[in-house]
Specification:
46% of the residues lie in helices and 8% in strands. By secondary structure, it is mainly alpha-helical. The protein starts with 11 loop residues before the first helix and ends with a helix.
C-alpha cells in the first residue's frame, strides 16, 4: 500500500534507552532518524528503497548534504541496522509497517461497511402484494427507523373491494388518512395500511345498530370523517369529479 501522507509511531523512551544508539555519535543519530523516515515512506518491508532503487552511500550523502560514509559505518558497526538484499534494513521498521498497514486496511474496511449499511434502501418500490418496510440503518445498529408504505387511491379502493368494504366509507377513510399524512390519531405513522383498512371496516360494522340505525356520533372515530366532496359543498362524488377535483 503506497501512501503520500504517512505517520509512524516514535517512542522517545525507547529511542533514549536504545543501547545500540547509545554507542554512536550525535551525527550518526541524526542521520539514522532521517533514514527512518525514508524507510517508512518507502513501505518496502523495512528496507531503505527510494523510487524502487537501493541508494548507495554516495547518494545518501548527497541527500543529507555531507559525506555519510563514516556515519553509516558507525551505525552498522553498532548494530543499529543490517543489510538485506543490499539495502539498509531494520526489523523494527518492518514490524511497524505491518501494524500501520493493518490499521489502514481496517479503517478502509469499516468505512466501506458503513457506506454499505447507510445506503438508501429501495425496497418500497419492489413490494406490491405485501407492505414494505424501509430500514435506514445508521452506524449504530441499535437505531432502526421504519416507515410504512402509503397506498394509492386505486390500491386502497381495490383492497376495500377485496374485503367487502363499502365504497363510500372506504373513500372517506382514505381521504382522512391522506389529509393527515397517514398517521393514526394524528401522531403515529401507519405501518401497515391494509391492517388499517381492516380496522376501519370493523369499526364501520360495530358503529351501526341492528336495522342499520346509526349509533351516536360520540362512538365514531377517525375513519368516519365526512367525505371530502361533502366538506367542499358537493352533493355527491360525481359532481365533485365533474368540477375537476381528483
Amino acid at each position: 500500500m503506497k501512501r503520500d501522507n504517512f505517520w509512524f509511531a516514535f517512542e522517545p523512551n525507547r529511542w533514549l534507552s536504545n543501547e545500540k544508539l547509545a554507542l554512536v555519535s550525535l551525527g550518526a543519530k541524526g542521520l539514522w532518524i532521517h533514514l527512518l523516515c525514508l524507510a517508512y515512506k518507502a513501505n518496502e518491508g523495512g528496507r531503505l528503497v527510494i523510487n524502487g532503487i537501493t541508494p548507495t552511500t554516495e547518494q545518501i550523502g548527497r541527500m543529507v548534504g555531507e559525506d555519510a560514509t563514516k556515519l553509516l559505518a558507525e551505525l552498522e558497526t553498532a548494530g543499529v541496522f543490517t543489510r538485506k538484499d543490499g539495502a539498509i534494513y531494520h526489523a523494527g521498521i518492518e514490524k511497524g509497517l505491518v501494524k500501520m498497514n493493518q490499521k489502514a486496511e481496517g479503517y478502509a474496511s469499516r468505512m466501506t461497511h458503513r457506506c454499505t449499511i447507510d445506503e438508501p434502501s429501495m425496497t418500497h418500490l419492489s413490494a406490491k402484494d405485501e407492505p414494505s418496510i424501509v430500514q435506514n440503518k445508521s452506524y449504530n445498529k441499535s437505531k432502526i427507523v421504519r416507515e410504512g408504505l402509503r397506498p394509492t387511491r386505486s390500491d386502497w379502493s381495490a383492497y376495500a373491494k377485496e374485503i367487502g368494504w363499502g365504497t363510500t366509507d372506504a373513500e372517506s377513510a382514505f381521504d382522512y388518512y391522506e389529509s393527515n399524512g397517514w398517521k393514526i390519531g394524528g401522531k403515529t405513522p401507519v405501518k401497515d395500511w391494509r391492517a388499517c383498512a381492516r380496522n376501519c371496516q370493523r369499526r364501520n360494522q360495530t358503529t351501526t345498530k341492528k336495522g342499520n340505525q346509526p349509533m351516536n356520533d360520540n362512538h365514531r372515530n377517525s375513519c368516519y370523517s365526512p367525505p371530502t366532496y361533502k366538506v367542499m359543498g358537493y352533493k355527491c362524488r360525481e359532481d365533485w369529479v365533474k368540477a375537476g377535483c381528483p
